[in-house]
């Protein structure tokens, strides 16, 4: 089953409740694990978040759930929590929404954003790849335009490994 997290937000963009969306029959239905309930209307039809944005449907679905708070409404929601990132000052969500409007639904970002060590690993791999590409571009520019002899990274690595693993020469 495909499942994704849905964060219900306050007007101040703080998380007020977390529910799950489960993909069933090409529809993302709402499941609330806290109350151990699958959201249904009076006819027993499974409800999506767009269904629950209607106040009448929301009150109908939650009326039989004991102690379910009316403030857990579905007017404002997100799939990805960006508050923990240090880039919050750059209005990252607004920037990503303007570039690719459905970026938060395109893939499951939870593992990357909630596990700091995994995010650091991914960022370091991306940085390494970008630096190697930059090195190659600068090397090509130096060789073709400036006629500066390029030193191969492979040759440097081979010389360094042979110096590291070969026995020292004693005279």
SSE blueprint and pairings:
Layout: E1 3-9, E2 15-24, E3 27-32, E4 37-38, H1 49-52, H2 55-62, E5 77-78, H3 92-99, H4 103-106, H5 110-114, H6 116-144, H7 153-165
Antiparallel strand pairs: 1-2, 1-5, 2-3, 3-4
What does this structure look like?
The chain is an alpha+beta fold. The protein has two domains: 3-113, no CATH class; 115-165, no CATH class. It is 42% helix and 16% strand. The chain has helices spanning 49-52, 55-62, 92-99, 103-106, 110-114, 116-144, 153-165, and strands at 3-9, 15-24, 27-32, 37-38, 77-78. Strands 4-3-2-1-5 form a five-stranded antiparallel beta sheet, with no helix packed on it. A hairpin with a 4-residue loop joins strand 3 (27-32) and strand 4 (37-38). The longest helix has 29 residues, at 116-144. The N and C termini lie far apart (69 Å). The mean pLDDT is 86.
Q: Estimate the mean pLDDT confidence.
A: 86
Query: What separation lies between the terminal Cα atoms?
Result: 69 Å
- Helix share of residues? 40-55%
Major β-sheet profile: 5 strands, antiparallel
Approximately how much beta-strand content do the residues carry? Answer: 15-25%
- Broad structural category: alpha+beta
The whole-angstrom Rg is 26 Å
Strand order of the largest sheet: 4-3-2-1-5
Count of individual helical segments: 7
Outline: elongated
- Which blocks of ≥5 consecutive residues have pLDDT under 50? none
> Care to count the β-strands?
5
* Helix and strand sequence: EEEEHHEHHHHH
Total domains: 2
């Amino acid at each position: 089953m495909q499942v994704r997290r849905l964060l219900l937000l306050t007007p101040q963009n703080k998380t007020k409740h977390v529910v799950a969306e489960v993909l069933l029959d090409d529809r993302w239905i709402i499941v609330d694990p806290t109350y151990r309930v699958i959201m249904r209307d009076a006819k027993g039809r499974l409800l999506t978040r767009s269904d629950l944005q209607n106040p009448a449907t929301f009150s109908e679905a939650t009326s039989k759930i004991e102690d379910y708070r009316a403030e857990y409404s579905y007017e404002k929601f997100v799939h990805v929590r960006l508050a923990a990132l240090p880039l919050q000052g750059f209005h990252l969500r607004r920037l990503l929404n303007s570039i690719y409007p459905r970026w938060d639904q395109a893939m499951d970002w939870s593992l990357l954003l909630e596990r700091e060590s995994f995010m650091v690993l991914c960022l370091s791999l991306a940085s390494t790849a970008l630096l190697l590409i930059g090195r190659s571009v600068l090397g090509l520019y130096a060789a073709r335009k400036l006629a500066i002899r390029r030193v191969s990274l492979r040759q440097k690595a081979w010389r360094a490994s042979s110096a590291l693993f070969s026995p020292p020469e004693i005279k």
